[in-house]
Design goal:
The chain is mainly alpha-helical and about 240 residues long. The protein contains twelve helices and no strands. The protein has one domain: Heme Oxygenase, Chain A. InterPro entries: Haem_Oase-like_multi-hlx, PqqC-like.
């Protein structure tokens, strides 16, 4: 049977479960960072991204409800994340819609689930399923470590060209600026919950598996945006 990993060893294993699968290296992220996209591509991104991140507080609520009352620090961390997503200062999805409107789409289109592609529907469904069915520490590993902790590294590469290449104002890209800082905190909270409470070899191995799957899901989602919305435009341009 696999032995229980020490805290430092387990932290390294969690980080390694993401390596090689980072969404910042997917084709859509690369094209964004290299200044190769157009505003209508960002509009399609926003219309999809809303349906992935919009329910994030719902995913966290599922984890919260599955966390036993004796795990007070884990419940408090999860509740704080929910608060920051929905109530602190400004709702994060409102900032996303503001960016979407600056890209030429509308609030109505963003909120309409028929405008997300099949891969986004799959990612959203996976997040719901994991948050509802998995042990709270495994779900935290999947959604907060595997998915959310990647956000600062993604947006740090993307926010500079939003300003310097695509010409967005600081107000229009507030969504990205906020998440570069807030998700550092959220991701670290997730790591601490997993490190504190994955206290059996089985739980540790399940966390590692779900972190890897989460990273693969986000990479596939990001690549799917390129394949669905960008690649067809390139084909037309070279025809």
């Amino acid at each position: 049977m696999t032995e229980l990993l020490g805290r430092d060893e387990f932290r390294t294993a969690l980080e390694n479960a993401i390596k090689g699968r980072e969404a910042k290296n997917a084709s859509f992220s690369k094209a964004w960072a290299e200044g190769k996209l157009e505003k209508h591509h960002f509009a399609r991104w926003a219309e999809n991204h809303y349906h992935y991140v919009g329910p994030f507080a719902d995913y966290l609520a599922n984890i919260y409800s599955n966390t036993p009352d004796t795990f007070t620090n884990a419940k408090d961390f999860t509740l704080q994340n929910m608060y920051e997503e929905e109530l602190a200062d400004i709702r994060h999805t409102d900032l996303l819609i503001k960016f979407a409107e600056a890209c030429g789409t509308t609030k109505e289109r963003v909120e309409d689930p028929s405008n997300m592609n099949a891969i986004t529907r799959g990612l959203q469904s996976w997040c719901y399923a994991v948050s509802q069915r998995e042990h709270f520490v495994v779900a935290t590993a999947a959604l907060v470590v595997g998915l959310e902790s990647q956000v600062p590294s993604i947006y740090k590469k993307q926010i500079v060209p939003l300003r310097e290449v695509y010409g967005f104002t600081e107000d229009e890209i507030e969504f990205f600026d906020l998440h570069i800082t807030s998700d550092v905190v959220h991701g670290e909270r997730g790591y601490q919950i997993v490190l504190d409470h994955a206290d059996t070899p089985q739980l540790q191995q399940r966390c590692l598996q779900l972190v890897q799957w989460g990273a693969e899901m986000r990479f596939s989602y990001t690549k799917g945006l390129y394949d669905t919305y960008v690649a067809p435009d390139l084909t037309l341009a070279t025809a």
